[in-house]
Design goal:
The complex is a heterotrimer. Chain B is 29% helix and 14% strand. Chain B contains 6 helices and 7 strands; from the N terminus they run ββαβββααααββα. Chain B is globular, with a radius of gyration of 19 Å. The chains are: A alpha+beta, B alpha+beta, C alpha/beta.
Chain lengths: 178, 203, 618
C-alpha cells in the first residue's frame, strides 16, 4: 500500500515538474512572439533561448513551438538535427568541450580527445553513465594562439595536454569545480 | 523575352524560364533526377548539368544546373560537351557507389557507360569498386529530396524532412516516430526515383 | 521619438570635448589586454587582483583600470600597459599585481623581469609598439583594441567614434559610394568582391525592404580576428553597419554571430544598448530622418552558415542547404529582399575610410589589393597572435620578421591559408607577396585570414585528411558531389594515413578533386578538395612515402610510427610508467624502461611525461 502511495506522490511531483516545464516553454515562446510581433521572426533565436533555458532542446519544446508558432514539426526537427549546438539530449553535470580547430589539431587536440574518450569511456556527443560529464568537440572556439583549448562549463583552459587536463578533471570529478 | 542558344539552336523564352525549360522548347532532353515540374527547382542532384558561356564575358565557361538556372540573354549553352558528360558521369558513378541495388540508378549507369572498361578512368574504377563491395553504407535513398519537397510544397503536410547533415543526412519523420501529420497519400513513394519509400498497411 | 533614457546629441564634437575634459592625461591608468584569449590565459585573475588590491589600498578612485580587447600578441598574455609612461608588461600573473602597484604605479619604477625580452637580442623592451612583433605591422582595424574599453561608448566617442556616421549622413549615399569605390576596398570575408559594387547593386535593386547583414560567423578554424574586433571594438561594427544601412536604404541590420563567441555577443549587446541610448541607433539618428536598428542573431554551430545563402536561410529559419545563384542576395536575399552581406573587417573599415579619406586607405597595399589585411598567425611560429599588415607583404616577412620564425628550433615546412577552402604553401613560396591574386595563383585563397604555420613534425597527408573530416562534418549534404565525393576523398586519405594506401590513390584524389570542384553547388564543395590538392602538388613525396613505404616522415600517423625508450637517456624515473593508460610501459624504478609495442596505443603521454627526452618516436 505504502509503495503505491509513494509512486502516486512521485507521479504528482513529475506532473508538477512537467507542467512547470511546459509553462516555461510557453513563456519563452510568448516572449519570442512579442519580440518579433512587428518584424520578421528569427526562428533560430527561439531555439537558442530554449537551449539556454534547458541546456538542450527537449522534444516537447519543439512540439509546443510547432503548435504555437505554426511551424511544421519536421522543419524544427531538421533544424535541431542540423545544428551542432542544438543538442536533443540533456547534458551531464559538467560539459567538457574540446576545440578541434586546425591549430588546436596541429598542436595535439586529437590526443586530448582520445585521452578523454579513454578516461570517461564515452564518445564525443555523449554523456558518461554516471551523468557527470558530457563530452563534446567543437570546430573552433577562436582562441587559436593559446591552444589546444578545452572549455569546461564555460571556463576556458588554454595550452592543454592530456596530462594537464587529467589534473584539472580531478577537481570536477571530486565535486570541486572552480 | 530572353534569347539564348542551346546546342547551336536559338530559342526565345519569357523572362524567368529556366534553361531546362528552354531546352524542352527545342525538344532537347537533359537528364534529371531531383527535378519535378510541379516543385520548386532544387539543383541538388547535379544531373542536369550543362555548360554555359556568355560571349565576350570575362567570366570563363562554367557548369550550371539547368533546372534552376534562369535563361540568360545571349547565353551559349551546351548540353553534351566533354566537360558536361564527364561531370554527369561522375554524379552517376557517385550515386551508383551509394545505391548499387537500385534499378533506376543501374539503368542510368548503363545508359551513361559507367563501367570499368577504361583503366585510365581512375575515378570510375574506384567508385565501381565501392559499388561492388559489401558495404553496409549502401542504401536506396539518393537524397534527391523529392519526397520531402512534395510533402511540403504540394501536399502541405511536411510529414518528413531531412535530418542531420552532410553524408549523415537522412530522410526521417520527427524524432523517428510515427508521423502525426502524414495522410498516407503516397505522393512521396510515387515520386521516389529509386523506390526507396514503400507504402505499407499500418497495423 | 527619443525616450527618457536617450541623450539627444546636438554636436558630436562638443560631446567628445566634454568627455575628454573630464579625463586627465596624467591620471595613472592600467590597461589590461582582455578578450577571450586574454581571459583564457589568466587575465581574469590579474583583473580581479588589481580590483581587490587597488580597493584595499584605497587607490580605486585615483587609478583607472581599463580592460580592453585583445592586443594581438596572444602568446605573451596576460599583458598590460601602465600610464603615464606607456610601460608594457607581459606574462603577468595575479601574484605580480601587488608589486606592479607599489613599484610602477606609485614609485614610477620599472620591473625589469616583467618587461618583454627580445628572444634574438636579449634586449628588454619598454613599450609595446617597439616589440618586433608589432614593429612591422600597420594596425588600423585592430588599433582600437589597445585603446578603448569596449563596454564604454564614451571611450569610442573620445577617439572620433561615430564621427564617420555623422559625416556620412550629411554626405548622402551617392557620395559615400564614390568614396568607397575610390578606396578600392574588397570584401574581407574571403572572396574579395569589391564592396562598392555590392552596395551599389543592393541600393539600386527593387524592393520596399532592404537589409544589411554582418557575417560574424567566422567559421574558419584558425581564424579569430573577427572575434577580436567584435570583443574589442563593437561600436566600430555598429557604426560601419549603420553607414552601410543608410547607403543602401535599409532600416534593419542583422549581425549573425557564432554562438561560440559568448564574450563578443555580450559586448555587442551592451554596445547596441549604449548606441541606442546615445541616439546612434533607433529613430531619427543624429537628428536626421534616417532610422535604423540592428539585431543580433546567434549561429548554432554550422560552418556552412558562413556561406551567404545559407546564412540568410539560417536567419529565416529555413532548412539550411545552399541554393543556386542567381538570384544573388543583392537582388533577392533575406526574405526575398535585396540584401548586402559584409564581413566584420569590411564593415569596420568603412568609418575609417569616411574619416580618413579614400586615399588614406588605397595608399597602401598592391595595385589590385588595397589596404591592410589581418592574419591570425598561429601554429608552430614563435610569436602567435593577430597581425595586421599592408597587402603585399611577403610570407617570409610575416612568418620570420613578425612571427619570429619557427618555435622550438624546428624547421619551416608549410603555411596553410584560407582555412578548409585553402591550401598549403611550401618553403619555395616564402617570398611570395600576400594578396588576393597571388594566393589564388599559388593554389590557395586569402579566405578570412587564417595563417597556420607548420613545421617538420606536421604531416601534410594528415592535414589534408583533417580538413576533409572538417568539410565532411560541415557539408550541408544537399548536392551529390560534395556530400558523396568528399566522403570518398576522406576514406582514401584515412587509408593512406593508416598505411593502407594504394598506388592509384593520388591519381584518384586529383581527378576526383577537380570533378568535385567543377560540379558542386556552393563554395564549400567547390573548395573542399583544395587542401588535398595543394598538399599533393607540393608534398607529393610525402604521400608516396606513406603509400609505398608505409612511413610517416613527420612521425605523426599513429599506424606508421613506433614509440620506444632510449636506453642512454632513460633515468628510470618511472613517470612514464605511472602515466601510461594501457600499462604498455614496463620497468622498475631507477632502471631503464621499455615499451611493449602490442599494448602501446601511441597516445604520446609517455613522450609528454618524460623530462629527459628519452622517449623516441620513429
Amino acid at each position: 500500500m505504502r509503495k503505491s502511495k509513494k509512486s502516486d506522490k512521485t507521479k504528482n511531483v513529475d506532473q508538477a515538474k512537467q507542467t512547470e516545464r511546459l509553462n516555461k516553454i510557453d513563456q519563452i515562446i510568448d516572449q519570442y512572439e512579442n519580440k518579433y510581433k512587428d518584424s520578421h521572426k528569427v526562428l533560430i533565436e527561439l531555439l537558442q533561448e530554449i537551449l539556454e533555458e534547458f541546456d538542450y532542446v527537449p522534444e516537447e519544446a519543439l512540439v509546443r513551438v510547432s503548435e504555437k508558432c505554426q511551424v511544421p514539426l519536421s522543419r524544427l526537427y531538421s533544424l535541431a538535427t542540423f545544428y551542432n549546438s542544438l543538442r536533443l539530449e540533456p547534458v551531464g553535470k559538467h560539459h567538457v568541450c574540446v576545440c578541434v580547430g586546425t591549430t588546436c589539431h596541429v598542436n595535439g587536440a586529437t590526443e586530448i580527445v582520445e585521452n578523454l574518450e579513454r578516461k570517461l569511456k564515452v564518445e564525443p556527443g555523449h554523456t558518461t553513465e554516471d551523468g557527470n560529464f558530457t563530452l563534446e568537440t567543437v570546430n573552433c572556439l577562436g582562441v587559436c594562439a593559446r591552444g589546444p583549448l578545452v572549455e569546461i562549463d564555460g571556463k576556458y583552459f588554454s595550452n592543454m595536454s592530456p596530462i594537464k587536463l587529467n589534473k584539472i578533471l580531478e577537481k570536477y570529478e571530486n565535486g570541486k569545480s572552480n | 523575352m530572353v534569347k539564348l542558344t542551346i546546342d547551336n539552336q536559338e530559342v526565345e523564352v519569357p523572362d524567368g524560364t529556366t534553361v531546362l525549360e528552354a531546352a524542352k522548347e527545342l525538344k532537347i532532353n537533359i537528364p534529371t533526377l531531383c527535378y519535378n515540374q510541379r516543385l520548386k527547382p532544387y539543383g541538388g542532384c547535379r544531373m542536369c548539368l550543362v555548360e554555359k558561356s556568355i560571349p565576350n564575358s570575362p567570366r570563363p565557361p562554367e557548369l550550371i544546373v539547368s533546372c534552376a538556372y534562369p535563361a540568360e540573354n545571349g547565353a551559349l549553352i551546351t548540353t553534351n560537351s566533354e566537360r558536361v558528360v564527364k561531370g554527369r558521369k561522375f554524379v552517376i558513378e557517385l550515386l551508383f557507389a551509394k545505391c548499387p541495388d537500385s534499378d533506376a540508378i543501374k539503368d542510368l549507369a548503363k545508359e551513361y557507360g559507367v563501367n570499368n572498361n577504361d583503366p585510365t578512368d581512375v575515378v570510375a574504377n574506384y567508385l565501381l569498386n565501392r559499388a561492388n563491395s559489401n558495404n553496409t553504407n549502401h542504401t536506396k535513398c539518393v537524397l534527391c529530396g523529392l519526397c520531402t519537397r512534395v510533402c511540403a510544397e504540394l501536399v502541405g503536410m511536411s510529414a518528413i524532412s531531412f535530418s542531420g547533415r552532410g553524408s549523415k543526412r537522412k530522410i526521417k519523420t520527427p524524432f523517428e516516430k510515427i508521423s502525426a501529420t502524414c495522410i498516407g497519400c503516397g505522393a512521396c513513394a510515387y515520386l521516389c526515383p529509386t523506390k526507396a519509400i514503400k507504402i505499407e498497411e499500418a497495423s | 521619438m527619443k525616450t527618457e533614457n536617450q541623450i539627444e546629441i546636438i554636436d558630436l564634437e562638443e560631446l567628445k570635448n566634454e568627455i575628454l575634459s573630464k579625463r586627465s592625461l596624467d591620471q595613472p591608468t592600467v590597461i589590461i589586454a582582455g578578450g577571450t584569449c586574454g581571459f583564457a590565459s589568466g587575465a581574469l585573475e590579474v583583473i580581479d587582483a588589481f580590483r581587490d588590491e587597488l580597493k584595499k589600498q584605497n587607490l580605486d578612485g585615483e587609478v583607472v583600470m581599463k580592460v580592453t580587447g585583445c592586443h594581438g600578441f596572444c602568446a605573451i598574455e596576460p599583458a598590460l600597459i601602465i600610464n603615464p609612461g606607456n610601460i608594457f608588461y607581459s606574462g603577468v600573473s595575479a601574484e605580480d599585481v601587488g608589486e606592479i602597484i607599489s613599484e610602477t604605479i606609485i614609485n614610477k619604477k620599472v620591473i625589469e623581469r616583467l618587461l618583454y625580452t627580445d628572444p634574438d637580442t636579449g634586449e628588454k623592451i619598454l613599450h609595446e609598439e617597439d616589440i618586433p612583433f608589432y614593429k612591422k605591422q600597420t594596425r588600423r582595424l585592430l588599433a582600437n583594441n589597445t585603446r578603448i574599453d569596449p563596454l564604454n561608448i564614451e571611450d569610442y566617442i573620445a577617439i572620433d567614434g561615430y564621427f564617420a556616421l555623422e559625416k556620412a549622413l550629411s554626405m548622402g549615399p551617392d557620395k559615400i559610394l564614390e568614396v568607397i569605390k575610390a578606396s578600392g576596398i574588397r570584401g574581407r570575408g574571403g572572396a574579395g568582391f569589391p564592396t562598392n559594387i555590392k552596395w551599389e547593386m543592393t541600393k539600386k535593386a527593387q524592393g520596399d525592404e532592404k537589409y544589411i547583414v554582418c557575417n560574424a560567423d567566422e567559421g574558419d578554424p584558425g581564424a579569430f580576428m573577427d572575434r577580436s574586433i567584435l570583443e574589442g571594438s563593437p561600436h566600430s561594427v555598429i557604426e560601419g553597419m549603420t553607414i552601410g544601412g543608410f547607403t543602401i536604404g535599409a532600416r534593419v541590420g542583422y549581425i549573425y554571430i557564432r554562438k561560440e563567441y559568448p564574450l563578443a555577443i555580450e559586448h555587442l549587446r551592451k554596445a547596441l544598448e549604449q548606441a541606442h541610448e546615445y541616439g546612434f541607433l533607433g529613430e531619427n539618428i543624429l537628428g536626421t530622418d534616417f532610422s535604423f536598428d540592428i539585431e543580433i542573431v546567434r549561429g548554432a554551430g554550422a560552418f556552412i552558415c558562413g556561406e551567404e545563402t545559407n546564412l540568410l536561410k539560417s536567419i529565416e529559419g529555413a532548412i539550411v542547404e545552399a541554393r543556386t545563384k542567381p538570384p544573388f542576395p543583392a537582388i533577392k536575399g533575406l526574405w526575398d529582399s535585396p540584401t548586402v552581406l559584409n564581413n566584420v573587417k569590411t564593415l569596420v573599415s568603412i568609418p575609417l575610410i569616411i574619416n580618413n579619406g579614400a586615399e588614406w586607405y588605397s595608399g597602401i597595399g598592391t595595385n589590385t589589393s588595397k589596404g591592410t589585411i589581418i592574419f591570425a598567425l598561429v601554429g608552430k611560429v614563435k610569436n602567435s597572435g593577430l597581425i595586421e599588415v599592408p597587402m603585399g607583404m611577403t610570407l617570409r616577412e610575416i612568418i620570420y620578421d613578425i612571427g619570429g620564425g619557427i618555435a622550438r628550433g624546428k624547421k619551416f615546412k608549410a603555411v596553410q591559408t584560407g582555412g578548409p577552402s585553402g591550401g598549403c604553401l611550401p618553403e619555395s613560396l616564402l617570398d611570395m607577396p600576400v594578396d588576393y591574386e597571388s594566393l589564388t595563383k599559388a593554389g590557395t585563397i586569402m579566405g578570412s585570414g587564417g595563417m597556420i604555420v607548420m613545421d617538420e613534425n606536421t604531416c601534410m597527408v594528415e592535414v589534408a585528411r583533417y580538413f576533409l573530416t572538417f568539410t565532411q562534418d560541415e557539408s550541408c549534404g544537399k548536392c551529390t558531389p560534395c556530400r558523396e565525393g568528399t566522403k570518398h576523398m576522406l576514406d582514401i586519405l584515412t587509408g593512406i594515413t593508416k598505411g593502407e594506401g594504394h598506388e592509384e590513390d593520388i591519381a584518384v584524389l586529383e581527378s576526383m578533386g577537380s570533378l568535385i570542384i567543377d560540379v558542386s553547388l556552393c563554395g564549400l564543395g567547390k573548395t573542399a578538395p583544395k587542401p588535398a590538392l595543394s598538399t599533393i602538388k607540393y608534398f607529393r613525396d610525402e604521400y608516396i612515402e606513406h603509400i609505398r613505404n608505409k612511413k610517416c616522415p613527420a612521425k605523426v600517423c599513429k599506424a606508421l610510427i613506433k614509440f620506444s625508450i632510449s636506453e642512454d637517456k632513460c633515468t628510470g624515473c618511472h613517470l612514464c610508467f605511472r602515466n601510461c593508460p594501457t600499462q604498455a610501459v614496463v620497468g622498475e624504478a631507477k632502471k631503464v624502461h621499455s615499451i611493449t609495442q602490442e599494448k602501446c596505443i601511441k597516445c604520446g603521454i609517455c613522450h609528454e611525461s618524460c623530462r629527459f627526452d628519452a622517449v623516441r618516436i620513429e
